[in-house]
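Chapter review: from sequence to fold.
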Amino acid sequence: MAITNKVHPRPRIFKVNTDPDPPYCYKSGLSPLYTQSLDEHQKDRARTQRPIMASASLRAKQGPLKDSYRSNPASALVTLSSTGTLDATSISCKLSTGAAARDARSKIAGLHPSAGGDDPAISGELCSGDMLLEALVACAGVTLKAVATAMAIPIVAGTVTAEGDLDFRGTMGVDREAPVGFMEIRVAFEVTLAEEAVVEEAKMEKLGQLTERYCVVLQTIARKPVLRVSLRGSGSGTEGVEKGFAWSETK
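The token string follows.
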């Protein structure tokens, strides 16, 4: 009888892990804490890269405009305008806004196309220069109607127009000698009186003088007020230490 040595395979033992939070990830082989820190690192990197990408995008838009303004300074000259209408029903001024402002639920300010902004008809973003002229038109129109009512001048219809000339070389930093802001602002009134009204020319001249004198926005622009500008905030410094900053200036 032959005797053979038969080797039996070692039994495999399966261990069931009942730990609700296993120390490693079966699919990736990584610890959940490691994968969590990896996700946070990616998010931090995205947050860091986002301002850099936004800066590059803005420079790409403004670069050709600046080159154009350097080679052809006249192309940087832009006239903004705003118009309002008056009627006989109330002491008010109805602004004639563009489609973007008319359809918007809230006004959003953005860059003017001459400064690298998108078409407001598409983006819905309004130029703050246009909004300044709108405020001037609104205030001047309401003031004119109020003064005319007090003086018993029957205005039945009218228009108020404000125009302002800008040199975008200034605000774009192309030429330090170019002014930043409006170089000239023009406000014009066109009014229609009631048919039976007889108003002396001197009275109409007085209407214009008083409107200019008591228009708050017009006088704010004409008489430079004391202006205080401040900037405050906080951010992460080196090694994640939060640091605050503050700047202020009075002119």
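Two observations follow directly from the output. Residues 32-71 form the longest helix (40 residues). The two ends are 115 Å apart (CA to CA).
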